[in-house]
Amino acid sequence: MTRSIYSRKVQGEKSLVPGGCNSTLQTVFRECLRCGRCGEQCSFLRRYGHPGEIAAQHLQDPSTHLQTGYFCSLCRLCTQSCPKSLPVARMFLELRRKAVKTSRGHFREHIPLRFFERVGNSRLFSIRYIPKGCDTLFFPGCTLPGIRPGQTMALYDDLRKILPKLGIVLECCNKPSHDLGRQERFAAMFLAKVDELKKRGVKNILTGCPSCLQVFQKYGDGLRTSLAYSRLDRSRPPRDGILGAEEKVTIHDPCTARFMPEVHREIRELVGRSGKKLCEMDHSSDTTFCCGEGGGAARLGQGNGDQWRQKRMAEVGGHTMITYCAGCTVSLQGEKTIHLIDLLYPELATPKDQRGGWRAYLNRLWVKKKIGEFSR
Predict the structure, then answer these.
(1) CA distances to 35, 136, 282 from 39, in Å
(2) Which percentage of the chain shows pLDDT scores above 70?
(3) Which CATH class is domain 112-233+355-374?
(4) What is the CA radius of gyration of the chain?
(5) Tens digit of pLDDT for each residue in 332-353?
(6) Residue 254 and residue 185: Cα distance in Å, rounded?
(7) What are the extents of the domains in the chain?
(8) How far apart are CA 232 and CA 151, in angstroms?
(9) Which of 163, 160, 166, 314 is nearest to 250 (CA)?
């Protein structure tokens, strides 16, 4: 039987025990200052009120605000803005989990997200290549191979020059289930994955996506995890052909990496080696804005996703915006938005691969085929 994720403490976070206490809600209720700082940038909180008020209403009537949690992007800008760093997003995640347990957390608008996850772990789209003696895996995630298939395999090839026994796993990290509050499914799927990898001798995970990085760091049960780009040969500078004569660029940090200062530092060091001048946006690193797709909130309407995107694009200032999250690349897509991997392998950029959609599934099948060739 798969071990229960509910009994674990991960980086100070205790997951909601089924049928258990409302500890996070009580913490937010008791300690929220009602100062309004968390709502200054967040239209969701401006609409529904201070986190302390929401927590109080739910504790008084447990049927209140269960579904409200699904309108939160879970981006954690509220925690960054809070004078007491209260876990507001975690509170809304717990409300989602309670909604699922009481059969009030199922929305047809989330079907595409659940399908995306199911496909990512299906036999048709997933593959594991773990050679003998392998203790480190490249985990590119779902979206990156879908929108940058050639660059994904080029990155793997370069990493293998540094780590000759590097394996690769093309699967989903199950973040959709986690963020939608489907915690029992997440626990069953993700922990089974972790257990199997550890049995095969895997100790380290290099992810192509900060969302996968976040999941493995929180729930990887001892697996050491970092972004794959940080392991590249530092003597090899990015090739800036995709930027042309442009002298200045800016960086969009995904909200999943909000509290990862070492990642912010590594990405900026890598971009800096391109020779371009970096112009930071007003909201970057730990104050970054969500791209609009966080937590699946945009799928339920209310305009939260569009407002986040508009806020983000308003700060770009006409520069090329580089991000290192494939999901953000799709959400913020445009002529001035590129993925970090485009700097590394500009010669492999193909316009038809850029924006996801049905073509992304064909691209992932192509990546799976290329991985399969290593097993022969």
Answers:
(1) 9, 42, 17
(2) 88
(3) alpha beta
(4) 20
(5) 987 689 999 998 888 887 765 6
(6) 25
(7) 17-101, 112-233+355-374, 240-346
(8) 14
(9) 314
Which residues fall within 8 angstroms of residue 260, CB to CB, at 6 or more apart?
Answer: 210, 213
| The pairing of beta strand 337-339 with beta strand 320-323 | parallel
Q: Which two tokens stand for residue 312?
A: 């983000």
| 52 touches 42 (CB < 8 A) | no
Residue 12: left (phi > 0), alpha (psi -120 to 50), or beta? left
Q: Is the pLDDT of residue 364 over 60?
A: yes
How much of the chain exceeds pLDDT 90, in percent? 73
Quote the CA–CA distance of 170 and 60 in Å, as a whole number. 45
Is residue 113 within 8 Å of 96, Cβ to Cβ?
A: no
Contacts of 43 (CB under 8 A, 6+ apart): 303, 304, 307
How wide is the angle at C-alpha 278 spanned by C-alphas 273 and 282, nearest 5°?
Answer: 145
pLDDT in tens, 61-110: 998 888 899 999 999 999 999 999 999 999 999 999 999 999 999 999 99
* Angle, helices 51-60/88-101, rounded to nearest 10 degrees: 30
Buried/exposed code over 244-270 (b: 16+ C-beta within 10 A; e: otherwise)? eeeeebbbbbbbbbbbbeebbebbbeb
- The answer to whether the Cα torsion of 19, 23, 25, 30 is positive or negative is positive
Residue 141 corresponds to which tokens in the numbers above? 């995630």
DSSP, collapsed to helix, strand or coil, labels residue 251 as strand
> Which two structure tokens, joined as six digits, stand for 308?
């986040």
Instruction: Label the pairing between strands 204-207 and 136-139.
Output: parallel
Q: Is 327 helix (H, G, I), strand (E, B) or coil?
A: helix
pTM, 2 dp: 0.90
What is 193-248 written as a DSSP string? HHHHHHHTT--EEEESSHHHHHHHHHHSTT-EEEEGGGGS-TTS---GGGGTT--E
